[in-house]
Amino acid sequence: MPGSSAARGRFYITTPIYYPNDRLHIGHTYTTVAADALARYHRLRGDDTWFLTGTDEHGQKIERAARKAGKEPLEYIDPIVEATKELWRRLHISYDDFIRTTEPRHERRVQQIFQRLYEQGDIYKGVYEGLYCTACEAYYTEAELLDGGRCPVHEAPVERLQEESYFFRLSKYAQPLLEHIERHPEFVQPPSRRNEVVAFIRQGLQDLSVSRTSFRWGIPVPFDPDHVIYVWIDALANYITALGWPDGELYRRFWPADVHLIGKDILRFHAIIWPALLMALGEPLPRCVYGHGWLLIDGGKIGKSRAGGQVIDPVQLIDKYGVDPVRYFLLREVPFGDDGSYSEEALVRRFNADLANDLGNLAWRTTGMIQRFLDGRIPEPPGAASDGVLAAAARATAERVERAMAGFDLPAALQAIWDLIGRANKYIDEQAPWALRRAGDRERLEAVLYDVAETARVVGVLLSPFLVETPQRLWSQLGLGPEYRPASWQQGLAWGQLPGGARVVRDQPLFPRIPGDEPARE
Ligand code: ME8
């Protein structure tokens, strides 16, 4: 990448592949927007980056949803997958590949994985009897169930199933997994999730049933087509089938993944079953499985089909507030890793306090003063006339953001950027350009306004991984023109690039305040 001298890294990030049994909601949007911000950040830094998302289309849950709608599975799924892609388009999700598990490129390789594990003895045939939750596509032990034999995730009754089944020798991998987690403490994050995974493995792992005969909608076991492959084996494999495992060019380039970003609901699948499968295949393990918390509404997890529960349609939120306010709210509101509440009121509060007041005002005041005091032209870079305060603050902020991003802590990165915005607003108050003007101190006036405007430009660069329209709008107000794009993160952050003489454009505030601090009326 031109302008970047830093050594290039490599970055492969994935989201879960979502079930297209119903339209996606704000919870799926949360994970995907977070992954997008991380992918954009690494791309901007010049890292060779791959961002994978997709849909998980097999299994009984999908088969039942389709049947209920009187449709064939694919006929039922296709429009939901299209709506999913449309949602990602509206949010400017910059994925490099979208995998559907019904694609031949995936099905063929899942069969190849199953075959190989069978031939080497890691998969064997037996009989399974257990308590099964269809919504989770998972068996539970008695101890894991809620009172009354109900699923701990969906709180609905589980079913007793008995079937001939193939099993994966998960038990064999308990010890190697524990050793791996010990040697690589960053493998499961955040640390609270690591403790949960370690405690679970220490109880001992049972072999896992990995085929089903009770329904047909799945990938057939290649050597025994009465069985379909368990949907979680099918689904987890997407992270390598999409790269062309075992010998595709992308596979060699990007595996192992740097991070599988997921919700904590599917942590055990990703931090236990998936690495055990990879160990059995002799493939390297992902560097990190990051299990973030849940967005809650009124204290409950948002469900696609929670009876009576509210399901928030992200498209409506984008229509009402714009794409960047929605992205910003999701990335900023909840400490990453923790659970947090979603509400439209909170979104409006963030909009008014952070976007309209802090960021919007910085741009509005800066361009306003340049207009009034300097005939609308950016002054020349001040050199020694600058006190260097904002340049130093900007440099320190970039370092804070980089540290936060290395730990996947997106809210902390945004907090750092907002501290810089706050510092610049305070600097305007302290330096009082209007007083410098009255005193006729032209040199200081120009130096102060240059530094504030340059800080706003840098804020645009820092925000580029997170927001998709605002940086350009901010830069155009500073007279940079619609074509301006920093060549890279490093190049964009170099201080003093705002060209003197450019004419500021003061058309409208970036984020007009929403009246009343309450949800706007339709
Ligand atoms: O589990 N808060 O798909 P899924 C935060 N197909 N994140 C949420 C959320 C909420 N309230 N609700 C959903 C599956 N998510 C499998 C995955 S991967 C090989 C197979 C996000 O459609 C979060 O990332 O049920 C969660 O893990 C995922 O959506 C579950 O999506």
From TrEMBL:
Compartments where found: Cytoplasm
Swiss-Prot/TrEMBL keywords: Aminoacyl-tRNA synthetase, ATP-binding, Cytoplasm, Ligase, Metal-binding, Nucleotide-binding, Protein biosynthesis, RNA-binding, tRNA-binding, Zinc
EC number: 6.1.1.10
Source species: Thermaerobacter composti
Main location: cytoplasm
Span of the annotated motif 'HIGH' region: 18-28
Taxonomy, superkingdom: Bacteria
Name listed for the protein in its UniProt record: Methionine--tRNA ligase
Residues of the full protein shown: 1 to 522 of 692
Claim: Heme is one of the keywords in the record: no
